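User: Quick one: structure for sequence A, then sequence B.

Assistant: Sequence A:
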Amino acid sequence: MTSQQRPLLIPSPRTPGQEELPYTPVPGDSLIPISSYPKPTSGMDSNSQIEINENSYQVPGFVRNSSSHRSISSIQSKTSSGHSVREVNLSEMSMRTVRYGSSGTDFGGVSTSYKEINDEDARLVYINDPGRTNEKFEFTGNSIRTSKYSVLTFLPRNLFEQFHRIAYIYFLVIAILNQLPQLAVFGREASILPLAFVLFVTAVKDAYEDYRRHRSDKIENNRLAWVLQDDKFQQKKWKNIRVGEIIKVYGNETLPCDMVLLSTSDTTGVAYVQTTNLDGESNLKTRYAKQETQTKNPEKERITGLIKCEKPNRNIYGFQANMDLDGKRISLGPSNVILRGCELKNTDWAIGVAVYAGRETKAMLNNSGAPSKRSRLESRMNREIIFLSIFLVTLCTIVCICHGVWLRRHKDELDLMQFYRKKDYSEPEVENYEYYGWGMEIFFVFLMSVIVFQVMIPISLYISMELVRVGQAYFMIRDDRMLDKSSNSRFQCRALNINEDLGQIKYVFSDKTGTLTENKMEFQCASIGGIDYSNGKDITDNGQADNLVQADGMVLRPKMKVKVDLELFNLSKRKHTDEGRHIHNFFVALAACNTIVPLTIDTSDPSVKLIEYQGESPDEQALVYAAAAYGFMLIERTSGHIVIEIQGERQRFNVLGLHEFDSDRKRMSVILGCPDKTVKVFVKGADTSMFSVIDKSSNANIVKATEAHLHSYSSKGLRTLVIGTRELSASEFEQWQSSYESASTALMGRAALLRKVANNVENHLNILGASGIEDKLQEGVPEAIESLRMAGIKVWVLTGDKQETAISIGYSSKLLTSRMTQIVINKNSKESCRKSLEDALLLCKKLTTVSHATHGGPTAEVSRLALIIDGTSLVYILDTELEEQLFELASKCAVVLCCRVAPLQKAGIVALIKNRTEDMTLAIGDGANDVSMIQKADVGIGISGQEGRQAVMASDFAMGQFRFLVPLLLVHGHWNYQRMSYMILYNFYRNAVLVLVLFWYVLFTSFTLTTAITDWSSVLYSVIYTSLPTIVVGILDKDLSRTTLLKYPQLYGAGQRQESYNSKLFWVTILDTLWQSIAAFFVPLLAYWESEVDGSSIGDLWTVAVVIMVNIHLAMDVFRWYWITHAAIWGSIIATFICVMIIDAIPVLPGYWAFFEIAGTKLFWVCLLSITVGALLPHFVVKVIVQYSSPSDLQIAREAEKFRSPRELRHTQIEMNPIFYDRRRT
């Protein structure tokens, strides 16, 4: 490429250094639960279809039966497409081909939590009767064990795991061969030492880690809990708790096992738990005891009954069971169970019966790390090791063939030849003396050659790589530029074996909500009755309304303030007008149609308390705070009613029923008994689901206006919800209640029947309006995306949001620009998708042709293409023949934005690229719906944000902000890749030099495999003489400063182009090694050719010369020196001299005092100097010529960094290589 064609490396912009979670259930006084549907994992945003589908809501609905006050229990199956990705889908994915084109969100199979219970799948738990419970099947005890080994199993199991590495088996075979008398080349002890050392170091590390696990297990198992024994609660160790026992837990205590709630200190049976230890979520979740058991006191009256529940499974958001008590069958759901590891909060005590204990608890079943991934660099390294193995076999073959020829030529001299001696004349009868015939001798020489040249395969490389990765991880974790100060969370390195992959990423697949955005929702505007309040404008602080509520002499104020529209605020006070009533119903829906729990917080003023709305959905919190700002303040929620302060008047609404979100309906509803004695159903949900159940005949104008407002909100990047209501007649309510009772007690098909009941009541709604909630971009996202793009990294956004919302976020994050040509594919059939893809490819071809004619290359136009495709289209494209066309189109686009995609479709998009190119992929997300994508990509990163820790637990790395991707990839990723690449090549060179010196020596000693270098020096060469400098340089060396790497993102392209490790470099290294071995061997040989020096003396010279040579070679390639680098390199040379002197000073070892004899001559030191200069001079000359005639980007940047002042460098544009290239998998 000419200098005119080479793009300029322009400084990057300054780069600063989800979906919602399960809802809390709300029961009623006399309780009839409403629904039990698969729970989605996202907020109720109509912008965000899949985000709604993916949220997990744990909301049982309950109906007050005013006439009979009967209570019928509920069954709730919490199906979370997102949350269950890991728990449900892993086994399914491993057993069968996964289809990514599914339009539904139940994509990987169905957890047992969501199936009807039959006798074969059921666990029978007899309440307060552990003996009978465990009589037929002995359930596991409550003792847990996270440790891997015991005293007896440690040695065999640890060795078994270590020998999964083929290289270790290779060295074991070599060590065994050396124990045979016919093949004993080295000392038997010395041959075992390298492998023993590596196994010992790894075993010590594993033993220490397991010791810590044992200690943690012991502390956990010996904690105390209150267990009902002899009709009173007594303390008992956790490890001794059995399934069926009744347990009492006090406030702020941790739950010892999975329990079904029987009663709580709250008269309505409510208990609050915090699941931080389970899923990382800090919000309180509400759980309920059934009214049938709430009134029972186990210490005063014996409770007996049978719980028939599902077998243990990993789904922490699902539970299905029936309880037979006093002749009644009561349904149990996820809101009635509390799990091990959770903490009881805001509740004095809770009593429950153990249903799962020990390793069968959901917490322990989920106690597994992310799937292991293998470094791409290590995979390529294995290819080079195969070449080295072939090279090793070639050397051994040459030696054994030459030895066979030599034996033929000297067969008549072998009888008495010194050092060989074929005949044994020590006895009267002459016999062959250790001679096995010509063929066997050749075979033995081949095996002996393998033993002598074994160092060619560098066993020390594996342990060196592990240590280097640990060191690199330490510096990544301690990097304050990747510290999220808002949450005080540091970068986490959860997978130590893929650090270097961070320097080769070509594609970044990102979630939107909670990853690019903060997932902290703020109410912005509303459309009510067809009128847009705020008209899409930002509301200024002048519109701030400070709502206060007087209660029991206290002033209550919402913790979060919301900007309000003054016109809407004033209209909301006009209760007697039609417009006022419409606004009244809208805000009542916002305040009531949720599962938010209001909590009071003390302030510095004793007379003022803050109300904090605790909920698992940021969307719901924003809506409730908005309602409070307009004078509709939710101040109390119990299991059967809510209290809302409306314009200074306190009103009580009875919660008669609640239908939760599910992936089919995409909406939730609450049935309220209002103060005016009417019964109303309030519904909110995504626009796609709500407009299908709204009565458009009587609301035509309002519906049309609302649709226009929704489009406007979405275009601004706001998350939207539609709210509707209708009044239920007495007959409708009774019909619904009867249908629900029948559905909730059905033994088969219960979930489908309950869903049908919900659909029947959610229809013919009057539209109230729509809300717009802003999910702000995280700090530094636009600059981060711009830097990644300049680095040649393609950023794809995969979101469940509406197309308009996603496009708006794309513009604000600089993912999309006004100069880009947008290709939109939003079709509903396979043929229309095919036509769109063909048209888009033709467009790309035309643009490329025009670009060729205008600019002489395709880069400019292709880089301005953006593909926008929705999940419906992907249903018809993924897993079909259209995939290839989609890949071809996507690879020509700079940006791909996928809207309304399901979790498994996200993984399918990653697979689309991963299976067709050699490019490295990275997926980043924060929610459970991102788990499949994170695990599918080469590198998975979890954002520790608002959505719990599901993504973090499945990831390879975790961090607090999206912008940290820039320093992670461009700085640490670049450093890690450069260091590890050099370290691997250097290890190959370092070991091959020694092997070739030994090989040359064999050629001059009749191919007898005698070695001049002592056994111990051969062993210590890779352990002491040369290992430490490699590790230190691999951890600390920096080819470029952080400032330069961030300022010029294009430098990252060196890793994408594999400039530091490729086949060409490998073979160049081998040629360099060949020359250096010749210089190291033949200089002393020629210098001492006719002298009387013995083999041990010249062997010591070769040992010291090779060590000096390889360490100075390393020193020539070091970019940045630290004191520890000096100490490691020069200290290793000094250590070599000391070790050689010690070995030669031991009388029982061969070569006694040899070093001291030869080192006392001037020729020894002249040889050392000559070897070093002669061996390394070509390396230095070639390096200078290449860097001068054809410098790489990195060399140019290093020169600029070294010879220009920082001020001058800041305003410099450096000419660089192009970053766009195509590397398809062949």
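Sequence B:
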Amino acid sequence: MTRITASLAGVVAVILAIVIQSHAVPGTLGWWERDIPPPASSSAAATSPAEPIPTTSPDNCNQAFFTSILPPEASLENIAAVPDGGSHGEGKANIAYPTDPTNLPALCAVTVNVTSSPSSSYRFGLFLPMPTEWSGRFLAVGNGGFAGGINWLDMAPGTHYGMATVSSDLGHNGSVIDTSWAINQPEKKTDWGWRALHGTVMLGKKLTAAYYGSDITYSYYSGCSTGGRQGLREIQEFPDSFNGVLVGAPAWWTSHLNNYFTQLGMYNLPNTSDSYIPTPLLQVVADEVVRQCDLADGLQDGIIIRPDLCTFNSSLLLCPSNETTPTCLTNPQLSTLAKIYSSHHHETTGELIYPGLTLGSEAQWWAIIGNTNGVPSPFGIGYQRNFLFDNATWNYTALYSDFVVDLAERLDPGQATADHYDISAYKSRGGKIILYHGLADGLVPTKGSELYYQRTMQYFGDETTEFFKMFLIPGMQHCWASPAGVDAPWNIGGAFQAGVMGSGVWSVPGFEGSEEHDALVALRKWVEEGREVRQLVATSWRAGMNASSGVRRQRKVCARYLLTGHIASPGCLRARVALPGKNTRVALGGAPLPSRQLQPRQHARHLTTETSPANPSTTTSSPAAAAPFRKQLKEQAKALKKSGHKKKKSSDNQTVPGWELTVGIEIHAQLNTAHKLFSPAATSFNDPPNTHVAPFDLALPGSQPLFQPATLIPAVRAALALNCSIQPVSRFDRKHYFHWDQPSGYQITQFYEPFAKDGFITLYARDGIAAEDGEEIKVGIKQVQMEQDTAKTTAQPGDVQWLDFNRVGVPLIEIITLPEIHHPATAAALVRKVQMVLASVDACVSGLEEGGLRADVNVSVRRTDDPSGKLGTRTEIKNLSSFKAVEDAIIAERDRQIKLLEEGGEVKGETRGWSLGSTETRRLRGKEGEVDYRYMPDPDLGPVVIGGDLVARLRETMGVLPDQEADQLMERYNLSAKDALSLMLLDGGARIQYFYNVLDSLEERLAADGQVVPEGAEHATLAANWCLHELGKLTDSSSTSSDPDVLEGLAMTPLGESPLVPSSSLAAILHHLYSRTITAKVAKDLLWAVYRGEIPEGETTGYIDTHGLWFKELSEEEYAKLADEVIHGEDKVLGEFLRWKQGKMKAYPQGKLMFLVGKMMRGGPEGRVEAAGAERVLRRRIEEVYLPELERGE
């Protein structure tokens, strides 16, 4: 009997490190060591006397000012005015970060101590540039591993961009591998896990705003490894903290990754065993991996760009006659090697614990696979001893197993996990994420970041790339650098990357401020100017970390998602190489090279080279190759996105040259009925188990099926919406099979004579079909049949299964498409479209991800030049639970079948499964044919006769279908295709009805004012945007808020009404906003007040009156007078605008403009200054009045 297991209860996250500063291999130079001479101030303690205050120092850089604004739990530890070109830090007293930054701009350096609990506290440092240099931005930087210490060195680069910059010590002072501080200290663990960073950000922002007397315009974050995990967790729990985060190699899955380190050690240890791989042999493995995998990307340059395309043959490393030599491995050692590359799954449940290490990452393995002392990595056993068990002598050899991971998931020490993939709240406020990871990372496996990105895509689908970009950097190790001899471009301005090149370095040396080369600048442009980040340029230098030696290589790195079948565009595979005396170019083809015979290992490798200018400041990337046709279609799709004419997938993995994919889909949907299909028992989804069960549901002797005619109504509505022909007579059949969830030993279905046939569904580009399918595609529906559901199984420990028979007999329809789908994206779009159609006719209980819909896909492939024209052998993938899972599973199975056939194998008909986070399907069982199921007519049930009058009546009363409604929303109300579809999908279809209610009420109010209300005018677009986006912010915030007064959801009814935000209340707010009697800020505040129950329905206007919230905007003359007052004494700021006008600055000083606008907002009469009006007048006066006066010397 097939064993059924339960999923692991929660996933947790976080971990590791980025710099192992005290764990070197004897006789080698530690890869983490920074070749940076300590500055003169590096030995100074944190409380050393401040430098003399420069003449440009602001008056606020003093103890009295900061002490007066600190909360009671915080105290000022140190304050120093740092002169231009100066240094600041704590030197060797800071164990984790002993190197102080140099070459700082003039700034105020503040150190604060915060008591976080009776037994814990944390410190943070804050760099505040001079007020005239502040850009209005705030930057927080992260830490590494278990390190405790203020990361002054990583704070420095942000100050050169005029950003106020902050870092926390996370509540202790220690190295990246030291966990001794955590034992029996739950509060300190919490500080490390999340509290210290969050508190630092909140208080740091407060101090920054007070110091400058101005609100922060934009907030950012940058961190790698543990720092990457910190940033992800902060936006998951507190989405308002940042506008953009730059996350490198995030150690996000703490409970799994740290335990995985111990597992890796157990693979390789003890160091006396035959299977032990000593450190010197890792270089032998690395060399062989490069030899076999270098050309997989089509470029022989010593850098592995596409490890996923390489089939590594480790047997070529086998020693002759199994003899041990320094240049080969034995069979037991090869077995260890295979385990390290493979993903590790739970020994009992089969759930993924952590994906394996990547080909090309071997140079850093020594730090995590067990050292010469015979113990696993301190990142593993330190976590278990001091975080998880609070037992410094815990014996891993006797006690470690996969069940330790289960315990870590339940306890989550420090609540450090960053595994919330639904970050809608962050997305809805316009937040952006750039995640990068080195493909040669031998500490935090690169596949872990791919897993996080994939799970995020489960929630957002194609929308993921609108706010979340992932860059995989070939040849880069953990956070920075590349293995010796590989010399891959790696610097993109990420965390730690400037500091490892020198204490006074910032950005990417030679390319400071370039959004193409510096990811932090690119992130800022994306957030503030909407300039999507599609590629970055990574850089390396001739002499390692010495930028003055000149650029060695540069490579374009494109945002991409690696999954089997994804091919990166050629322009992102080119590397520029600068070598003395070399002047050759290498031309790349767009397709991967065919498989080749491996040559003897003695053959030398050859690097292809390409010249770059000697001056790094003028170096540019090599020109991109002409984009393939599919790429051109994709770019056209983005340009037409608002109109919905081209809604296209972001990946280019829809086809494989020389092969045709064929997909058929079976969708099972629970019908919206009051009773089960063959018994009067009520349908139940949330009631206690086994409380709605009739005798027939349990197949008790003597019980018989009793067809419930009412179940036909939603079934026929669904079939009509799918353009099917309703059959006058249909019959039920028995499908025989034995399983514990089917008491009768058979399922009643309609195999031979279903009630509906010959339908179709039309998919458009806006639905997300593949670009290869053009503007629209019609997919045939073979039949729609009624059948009964099975019992619900819940796995328990000890191979025990609990059964809930409430679900037995619940009516389903099975929708079977014809095998007419040839692209994975189109298959996912079809399932999504079917869900919308079923919801629009009220036929289905709930959607795919809520369990009311289940999709099975049948996949086959055949060669495009096959003269027979026969379809290939199909396999079935069962129970896919999300739209993205449908697409990913099809891609994985397609690629598996193609690989099998190309190797001369045979595809067998079988049933396969798909798990969240997988990149390949897994075999479940051999495929049973019709004979095995022994279909037969059910002798206890007569034929079902459906009258033509019933069909006609249901057809007439079906209402508006999704395509018609989407067209109306786009044409009449000027909504984008994306917003139109979102309105239709939210709240089970109730949000769109709510919009119509709001619009009706708003138009009544406008008409009562005597305003002419044309159909589809600006007021309707305003209402739609608020119903979609502003209401969404309420629910997104509530899902992450710790405020007990914040409610959950909108409690939307099917008729489109919310008791929390009545449609009339929102209409009243929009009436005043549209009439310009209140500001947008006031309108948003009013919406929150309604949501919290502070404004009863019908009392919005009275509330505005009582609180004096009416908007009376200043006149142009009053704005001009206010601008004149604000500009007084700001000659230095005006000088920035003059330099821009004279062509001495590339970018308009928008930050300085907003600084002055902020002063106008604060200095003007409360409630009468609007930011847009102030900016408009101020900009005009700068150009027409102030700059001419400055040029004349007045």
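DSSP finds 30 helices and 30 strands in the chain. The CA atoms of residues 900 and 906 lie 7 Å apart.

User: Thanks, that's what I needed.
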